[in-house]
Amino acid sequence: MRNLLILLSLLLTPTCLCYTPFNPKISAAGTTRRKALSRVLNFVGVTTSAATILGTVAQPLPAYAAPTIYNTPKGVKYAVTAESNGPVPLPGDFVVVEYTGYLSNGQIFDATHATGKRNELLFKLNTGSVIPGLDEMVGEMKVGQKVQAIIPPALAYGDKGVCLENGECLIKPGSTLVYDILLKKTSIPPP
What we know:
By secondary structure, this protein is of the alpha+beta class. It folds into two domains: 2-54, no CATH class; 70-187, Chitinase A, domain 3. The chain has helices at residues 2-11, 14-18, 24-29, 33-54, 132-140, and strands spanning 70-71, 77-82, 94-103, 108-111, 121-124, 146-151, 162-163, 169-171, 177-187. The strands form two sheets. Strands 1, 2, 3, 4, 5, 6 and 9 form a seven-stranded antiparallel sheet that branches. Strands 7-8 form a two-stranded antiparallel ribbon. Strand 3 and strand 4 form a beta hairpin.
């Protein structure tokens, strides 16, 4: 009942009475305060009746907590988007990941699921096979875990970027990169 009284008091304030949607017929004839008030009260009455009949009362939507942001020792910031209890790979292990790489403006620059590509990337951890930030991030993950990682330029392509000889760059020098990463598998290397 208290919520209904608050709603009515908000609807009956002069600012609410001044607004009417554009309708050529009404605009030509002119709208009085009485007509506007009648429309508002009619709407409130119908809405209240419908809620009573249905037995529902509007409840506020639950607030979603902001994700926890973690930092790796070298400075990659990340949020876990899917938890897992799988094993953590060790340095030198082979790992299989799926990823999407974004520039800071949201543009995708690479993805394992892009047309003509395999659905995963296989590399040996801590051997320089991938950019340092991706290597470090995957080394912190558990198999089955998904993260979104923000990789600073020093752990990505640094001051060089990824540029063609003509100066056109896919990844500009000094770019911060964002990766969505899923660690699918890990295995020890053969002897």
